[in-house]
Write a structure and sequence with these properties.
This protein is of the alpha/beta class. Helices cover 43% and strands 18% of the residues. It starts with a helix and ends with a helix.
């Protein structure tokens, strides 16, 4: 009896354990949904205050910001000018506030103090639809919708034709992604469909940004998950996407932003230095150390690939 009962008890306890895990996951999911539902939307400007941006410039004027519930500030007294048509890069240690600063441009959050301006107008005075039309963005952890690849790209411009979507996918080096699925651009993503790697998701998001053709482009580590073979092609696509546009780019691979018009070094929510690549190498110890680490990492990666090929 005890021999049989012991086996049954173990099975019962295993089922209880898995049931408890499912309950905890469900409770956590409900909690996150409740947080989203409880979040109040950002206030739209009144008809009197609403103004369109004059151009594609961006400016941060003594901007301070802290996330709700955080013990410290994510941004402190940040001031930066991004002239229309220029390329400005934000670099610095992880957690320094680069992504937070970029998120304030399309007004995912409102600055706690100071002002963020687009085209000379405070983003809080620009209607959301107008601001979204001005800014295209590709973030490091882009997520795709549970829809076809075609609809995921077309989300940036719902009225785009299939030919325009195909052209954007080609420009973003997505041909190999489309070719490996029998249904091509009509392949469904997500549950009961296919799942893409991080690099593939970034290329689809880049195609979306190319299709949108907005005058301001925000790139947050747009090649973070890209292998070395595809990185050069992605950089060429980005160059075509941003030609004549205002580009605010966040990068840890410093070689991708060495030619930027201005590079701002962000640390602990502050801009500690800014200038061209050569100027920062000479005047900013933090940037010089980051560049040296980047060069060493590239050399190590090249040696590792050579050894792998030789093997």
């Amino acid at each position: 009896f005890y021999a049989v009962f012991s086996a049954i008890t173990t099975t019962m306890m295993t089922k209880v354990m898995y049931a408890s895990e499912a309950v905890m996951m469900a409770q956590d999911s409900v909690r996150r949904i409740d947080e989203i539902l409880a979040t109040r939307p950002l206030a739209e400007p009144s008809a009197v205050r609403a103004r369109p941006p004059r151009d594609a410039s961006i400016s941060f004027e003594q901007v301070g910001f802290a996330y709700p519930g955080a013990s410290g500030d994510a941004l402190v007294d940040m001031s930066l000018e991004v002239p229309a048509g220029s390329t400005v890069a934000l670099v610095g240690p992880s957690g320094g506030g680069k992504t937070t600063a970029a998120s304030l441009v399309p007004r995912f959050w409102d600055a706690g103090s100071g002002r963020v301006r687009v085209g000379g107008v405070d983003v809080r005075d620009i209607p959301a639809s107008e601001l979204m039309a001005q800014v295209a963005f590709v973030f490091q952890n882009d997520r795709l919708f549970k829809a076809s690849l075609l609809e995921n790209i077309r989300a940036a411009r719902p009225g785009a034709t299939r030919a325009q979507v195909e052209a954007a996918a080609h420009a973003a080096q997505c041909d190999d992604i489309v070719a490996k699925f029998p249904d091509g651009l009509d392949t469904q993503v997500g549950a009961e469909g296919v799942y893409l790697s991080g690099g593939e998701c970034q290329r689809i998001a880049l195609a979306r940004a190319i299709l949108k053709d907005a005058p301001i482009v925000v790139l947050d580590e747009a090649t973070a998950f890209t292998d070395p073979e595809n990185e050069e092609r992605i950089q060429q696509s980005i160059a075509r996407l941003t030609r004549g546009k205002t580009l605010l780019v966040i990068a840890h691979r410093l070689s991708t932003v060495a030619a930027a018009d201005d590079i701002a070094v962000v640390d602990h929510g502050r801009i500690v230095a800014h200038g061209t690549h050569d100027r920062l190498l000479a005047a900013c110890p933090l940037y010089a150390s980051m560049w040296q680490a980047h060069v060493c990492a590239k050399a190590w990666s090249a040696v590792s690939r050579k050894k792998a090929l030789d093997a």
